[in-house]
Structures are given as structure tokens and as C-alpha cells.
Amino acid sequence: MASKKITWESIFPSCFKPKGSQSKPKLITKSKTKTKTKTTTKTKTTTKTKTKTVPQRVVPSSPQRISISDISNPNFEFSFNDLSTSFVGSNLQVFTVDELRIISNNFSYTSNFIGEGGFGAVYKGFIDEKLRPGLKAQSVAIKVLDLEGSQGHNEWLAELIFLGQLRHTHLVKLIGYCCENEQRVLVYEYMSRGNLDNQLFRRCSVALPWLTRMKIALGAAKGLAFLHGANKPVILRDFKAANILLDSNFKAKLSDFGFARDGPDGDKSHVTTEHILGTKGYVAPEYVMTGHLTTMSDVYSFGVVLLELLTGKRCMDKIRPRREHCLVEWARPLLKDPRKMDTIMDSRLEGQYSVQGAKITTMLAYQCLSHNPKSRPTMSSVVKTLEPLMEMNDIPSHFVYVVPKGEKKEYANQVKERKMNKDNNRVRHNALHSRLSNGVDSPGFGR
């Protein structure tokens, strides 16, 4: 028996309302009236009224703003008209599938494919300035949602809503999107150095210098501080090395907002989630145990990434000895003891790092990884701690042996003598070769 094809329309029919259709008004109650008439000597009319409660359908409170809390509500409905009007003034482009084919060389796997994740495939593309008036020529990354992947429509929508309405130098820039028929595509600025995970852990790659690591940590911290300090705080929930993108100058930008959530409202201390989402090794322990999500959950995840930058090791790796499988559990006792700092520092740095800066960073990582969320620093405090590290100049120089003047003169004489001997040997060899070629003094001939 053939299985029925899964379509976006069958899953989210409200997203496929035709253009120009009007949203129904919000309904809370509905009255039905029945009238019974009984005729006697006097005519008496009795009216019975029944009130039926109808579930409230949630609609966007404003055509200019869609909240992530709205799409988390199972009764939330909207049309793509609502979607487009919510981004008025954001300069987001709405691409067609045909335009994306042109940009991505028809989604070429051989020449344009970058990678694939839970969201779907990612392709590199190039927007020619002739494609659309006013849109500058630029390289882009095109992320195509896989209907059968681990992330779905709501994750795509969450990313679109957050990056469509939030702008910051340390958030990846969303250029546009496509929601034509069943296609769900997001188009971003292209980040030429990929993500931090690849740069830090890729085999045979050059080790990132200390200051570059601190620059990345500071940029990522500024991105999180911006999200946490927004009018309505945003909790990224899946902060990890693979979601920190790097441009050609190693400027860090946060990406992947599919699991992001609005922070708690009013006096609430946390957001309660039904499902624990995130990446193993990066997720805060209290979130795993209780399902309670706060901005401190992101701070813990930042501490894990900071530890990866210090050690050059992944947060989870079963290839390592058993006690080192979980990087945090292995390193936590070492972080608070400055005398053991060398034990955790990435050996590939070969000692080329600021000792004072490393001490500050290890203690900061220890604070971020505290079991008690209330003991962790805010991301704005993290930024203030990291900023001075960029100015520290106590990084040792590479070892260079300087030859003393006396030894230098003697060495020069030795080189000169070896050169003269080599030249003399060459002259004697040429003379012998000439005599042998002419038969003079060659073997078998006497004088």
C-alpha cells in the first residue's frame, strides 16, 4: 500500500491561506438561541438560551510583530501575509525558488554544497547585482529545510522570526527567505571560515593563536549579551562551537536560532519546556533535570565553549581515557587551581599565550560552569572580563637563538673555508674529467 505523501499543507494548513484572505476575528464565546412557542388562551413565549464555549484561536497581536511564544502555542495561526508584514523595515528579501536556483548553480552538490545538519543541506551561492535592483552582489549561504529532518517547520519559523527582527554585529545576518509551495529556505551572509568547531578541531589544521581564540570568545559573548539584554530576553538554548560562525577576520557571529526561546515574562524566574533540546555536553545540568530554562543556561553553554578554546578538546569524546570522556567533569577541579593551569592548556599553543590572561579565562570558565545557576556571571559581566585580555602583551615570543659576535665571525670563517674547499674540489674534479676524456693518464696507458 503506497504511503501518503507528507506535505507542509497537510501539517500546517493555516500557513497556506490564499493571499488576500482576511483573518477571522478572535472568537471567545458563541450563543445559540432556541425559541419555543406554546399557544393557549394567552399566547406565552418562552426563550431558552444555551451558551457554547469555543476554544480561543490565537492570532498575531500586531501585524508588525510575531513572537516566538505565539508559534509555540498550538492554537497559533497566521498566513504568509502576516509573516511578510512582520518584517517591514528589516530589508529581508523574499526569494523565489527560480532565483535560488540561479544563485546556487541549481543547488549543485559538486560545486556549491557546503554541508548538512539537522536542519537540512547548506549551499554556497552568489547573488549577482543584476538579480534584483538594489540588492548588492555578495556571497551567501543557502539553508534548505529537509521536511524529514530532525528540525521542522517551527524551527525554521523560529530562526526566521528571531534573525528577521534582531540585528547585531555578532549575529549572523539573515538576507532573506523563501516559502514557495513546500520549500522552506533561509539565505544568510556567507561566513568564509565556517564554524568554530571546524577551525578548532579539524585534523591537520593550524592551531588557532591565543589572541584569535580570545577574539572569538569575546565576540560570541557580546552576541549572547545582546540577546539576554533585549527588551524581551532571548535564550539561544543551543549555544555550541558549531553554531559560532567566523568571517575572514575570525569575527564571531551566532547562528542557528531554531531552538531559541523568549525569556521569562514579568516576575517569572524561568521558562518551563516540555522537551529538553540542545546538544549533549553543552546543556546546563539544571535544565536537563528540571526543564527550567533561563539565560544562565546559555552562560553554562558558553563556559563549555570557553573550556574548548582553552584546551583544544571537544566537550564530549569517547576516544579519550574514560575519566576524560566529559571535558567539563575532567577539567572542573583543575580550573580553580592556577598551579594546574598548564595541565589543561592546549599543547598546540606551545606556551604562546598570556599567562595572566589564561588565569583569568580559566577562572571565568570555572564560574560559568558552576552547578548553581545563581553563581554564574551574566553575559554582560563575561564581556567586561574578556575585553581587557585583548590588550595583554605578556605573550612570550617564539624562541630565537642569537649568535654572539665572536661566534658569528668564527662561523662566517668556517662557512667561507667550506666554500673554498668545495670550489677547489670542483676544479680538481673538472681537470681529472678533462684528462680522462682525452685519454691522458687514463687507466691502461703508461707515460
From TrEMBL:
<keyword id="KW-0472">Membrane</keyword>
<feature type="region of interest" description="Disordered">
    <location>
        <begin position="421"/>
        <end position="447"/>
    </location>
</feature>
<keyword id="KW-0067">ATP-binding</keyword>
<dbReference type="GO" id="GO:0004674">
    <property type="term" value="F:protein serine/threonine kinase activity"/>
</dbReference>
<feature type="region of interest" description="Disordered">
    <location>
        <begin position="18"/>
        <end position="52"/>
    </location>
</feature>
<feature type="binding site">
    <location>
        <position position="143"/>
    </location>
    <ligand>
        <name>ATP</name>
    </ligand>
</feature>
<feature type="compositionally biased region" description="Basic residues">
    <location>
        <begin position="27"/>
        <end position="51"/>
    </location>
</feature>
<dbReference type="InterPro" id="IPR000719">
    <property type="entry name" value="Prot_kinase_dom"/>
</dbReference>
<dbReference type="InterPro" id="IPR011009">
    <property type="entry name" value="Kinase-like_dom_sf"/>
</dbReference>
<keyword id="KW-0547">Nucleotide-binding</keyword>
<dbReference type="GO" id="GO:0005886">
    <property type="term" value="C:plasma membrane"/>
</dbReference>
<dbReference type="Pfam" id="PF07714">
    <property type="entry name" value="PK_Tyr_Ser-Thr"/>
</dbReference>
<dbReference type="InterPro" id="IPR001245">
    <property type="entry name" value="Ser-Thr/Tyr_kinase_cat_dom"/>
</dbReference>
<keyword id="KW-1003">Cell membrane</keyword>
<feature type="domain" description="Protein kinase">
    <location>
        <begin position="108"/>
        <end position="390"/>
    </location>
</feature>
<keyword id="KW-0808">Transferase</keyword>
<keyword id="KW-0418">Kinase</keyword>
<dbReference type="InterPro" id="IPR017441">
    <property type="entry name" value="Protein_kinase_ATP_BS"/>
</dbReference>
<protein>
    <recommendedName>
        <fullName>non-specific serine/threonine protein kinase</fullName>
        <ecNumber>2.7.11.1</ecNumber>
    </recommendedName>
</protein>
<dbReference type="GO" id="GO:0005524">
    <property type="term" value="F:ATP binding"/>
</dbReference>
<dbReference type="InterPro" id="IPR050823">
    <property type="entry name" value="Plant_Ser_Thr_Prot_Kinase"/>
</dbReference>
